[in-house]
Amino acid sequence: MVSELAPVVLFLRGVLDIGDTLIIEEPEAHLHPAAQTHVAVTLARLVRAGVRVVITTHSDWLLKEIGNLIREGELAEQTRKPPAESALPSALHPSEVGIWLFRQDGADQGSTIQEIPFDRSEGVEPAEYDDVAEALYNRAADLQDKLEESRASTHE
Q1: β-pairing, 111-115 with 100-104?
Q2: Is residue 58 domain-shared with residue 134, that is, in the same domain?
Q3: Are 87 and 72 in contact (CB under 8 A)?
Q4: Measured CA distances, 52 to 9, 23, 46 (Å)
Q5: Which of 21, 43, 62, 63 is the least crowded, having the fewest Cβ atoms under 10 Å away?
Q6: Is the pTM value of this prediction over 0.85?
Q7: Is residue 72 part of a domain?
Q8: pLDDT, tens digit, for every residue of 83-126?
Q9: How many Cα atoms occupy the beta-carbon half-sphere of 43 within 13 Å?
Q10: Residues 146 and 95 occupy one common structural domain
């Protein structure tokens, strides 16, 4: 983790200026899920400071936190309080965030790019992420049922 983030931290502190573009491939790599959410907050603060940030990610946690940061921005906008009172420096407006899903269309068929709009209840995650989580849960539940049936049949 340190070897992955150290160059980024040094770059952020010493090279990056307002108006620059920062491109990071999978900033969540090798990070605990809680640390991934902190990375999302840091990236949002860079956006709020005037840096254009482009990332690639497969992290459900990073995307969930970006969704929360957009919700914070909407809440601050709705309450119309002065920024010092309501908006955290990481709160984002939906117009400041663009999320696209790149999907391969099969062998040698090319790729499609689909924008994932912000949804207040769903956030900004691809639907496939929920499908994977549900399939894993169902598999775990099915295996647990089979284990319990097996234990019951061996105790009879």
Answers
A1: antiparallel
A2: no
A3: yes
A4: 16, 8, 8
A5: 21
A6: no
A7: yes
A8: 544 457 789 988 899 999 888 877 777 888 888 888 888 888 87
A9: 31
A10: no
Tokens 């049949």 identify what position?
153
Print the domain residue range for 152: 126-156
Structure tokens at 134: 């549900």
DSSP per-residue letters across 5-29: HHHHHHHHHHT--TT-EEEEE-TTT
Residue 121 has a pLDDT of 83
80 lies in the same domain as 149 = no
User: What six digits make up the tokens of 92?
Assistant: 């984002």
The amino acid that residue 17 corresponds to is D
Structure confidence by residue, pLDDT tens digits, 18-70: 999 999 999 998 899 999 999 999 999 999 889 999 999 999 999 999 999 99
**Look-up: residue for tokens 């709020």?**
48
Asked if residue 120 is part of any domain, the answer here is no
Burial (Cβ within 10 Å: 0-12, 13-18, ≥19) of residue 69: buried
Report helix, strand or coil for 52: strand
Number of domains in the chain: 2
